[in-house]
Automatic annotation (TrEMBL):
<feature type="binding site">
    <location>
        <begin position="224"/>
        <end position="227"/>
    </location>
    <ligand>
        <name>S-adenosyl-L-methionine</name>
    </ligand>
</feature>
<feature type="domain" description="RlmM ferredoxin-like">
    <location>
        <begin position="6"/>
        <end position="74"/>
    </location>
</feature>
<feature type="binding site">
    <location>
        <position position="279"/>
    </location>
    <ligand>
        <name>S-adenosyl-L-methionine</name>
    </ligand>
</feature>
<dbReference type="Pfam" id="PF01728">
    <property type="entry name" value="FtsJ"/>
</dbReference>
<comment type="subunit">
    <text>Monomer.</text>
</comment>
<dbReference type="InterPro" id="IPR011224">
    <property type="entry name" value="rRNA_MeTrfase_M"/>
</dbReference>
<feature type="domain" description="Ribosomal RNA large subunit methyltransferase M THUMP-like">
    <location>
        <begin position="88"/>
        <end position="166"/>
    </location>
</feature>
<dbReference type="InterPro" id="IPR040739">
    <property type="entry name" value="RlmM_FDX"/>
</dbReference>
<dbReference type="InterPro" id="IPR029063">
    <property type="entry name" value="SAM-dependent_MTases_sf"/>
</dbReference>
<keyword id="KW-0489">Methyltransferase</keyword>
<keyword id="KW-0698">rRNA processing</keyword>
<keyword id="KW-0949">S-adenosyl-L-methionine</keyword>
<comment type="function">
    <text>Catalyzes the 2'-O-methylation at nucleotide C2498 in 23S rRNA.</text>
</comment>
<keyword id="KW-0963">Cytoplasm</keyword>
<feature type="domain" description="Ribosomal RNA methyltransferase FtsJ">
    <location>
        <begin position="189"/>
        <end position="282"/>
    </location>
</feature>
<dbReference type="Pfam" id="PF18125">
    <property type="entry name" value="RlmM_FDX"/>
</dbReference>
<feature type="binding site">
    <location>
        <position position="191"/>
    </location>
    <ligand>
        <name>S-adenosyl-L-methionine</name>
    </ligand>
</feature>
Amino acid sequence: MQTALTQVVLFCRAGFERECAGEMQELAANQGVYGYPQFEPASGYVLFICTEPGGAYKLIHSLPWQQPVFTRQWAACLPTLGAVPKQDRVGWLVQAMADFPQGGEVWVEAPDSEQGGQLQTLCRKLTPPLASALRKAGKLSEKRNLKQPRLYVAWLTEQQVVVGLAKPANAAPWPQGIMRLKFPAGAPSRSTLKLDEAWRFFLSAEEQQSWLQPGMTAVDLGAAPGGWTWQLAHQHFRVTAVDNGPMDEALMESGLVKHRQEDGFTYVPERPVDWMVCDIADKPSRSIDLMARWFEQGWCRFSVFNLKLPMQKRLAAYQQCREVFESRMQAAGLQVEMRWRQLYHDREEITAFVRLLD
């Protein structure tokens, strides 16, 4: 069965197919898996065709699912299937998965794109009867079992469907790879969801408990009107919000926030803090220089920051910024851990979490 899975389906943000494809080709080669991508602009997905038997299965097992920056969700799949007959979609899909091992769950989903959005209703309606038919065929366990493979159906277009397998422990736990969050009442801007998602994505439950403790200190660069500051204050941090613009009045009344009307690029903290966060919209080269300086100067231990990517050569811009940051940390004799991702609440940007190691 492993050798029959000849491609990996990758979900990404619509419009970032080229970045998703280019990054995966490099990461796969590092794992000894070779192939080539196929994609359509704005489709929200990429097909990575593996040139050696078993390559797709190896890739989704050997490469940690959190490592690709631009891939949200993935599964190793059979060659792309043609149009599914409308009169018996369930039976047709069960037959397509006849040689699969028994799965512990079944997912049916479409990419997060304009065309994919039109297919989501079909995916939701199809899942219960498909699960029932797969159980009758002995292809799905009676109860959900995350130790077994995830049976996976990706409805790419009305005429293209792929079926495959994913490893639940090495795949996104959210449909489409999207962590959907509720906008918190009282937050001054929707940007607050970016920091909320970053903490939930990058930090385990144990890390959140250890690294997000009440009484910690933080600086928010480019804070106004206070979306990220709200998250910091919600953790009962003592926050310095740095921005020439006005802050949300209700947030300032919390007693946890001090507003410094200064430029985030030139601000110097009076003393080191636990966290520095930054969502300033500027050139990525200028932003990464600022982030590196904070760690070089010993001004913070933890950071979450965004890099606004250019319209062209976005993958190259991210890779260059990462290399610059790594080289400067090495030159400064600092050991850091870095985690990067294009999160769902990001747009033309990616988010990084950096931790200074002891």
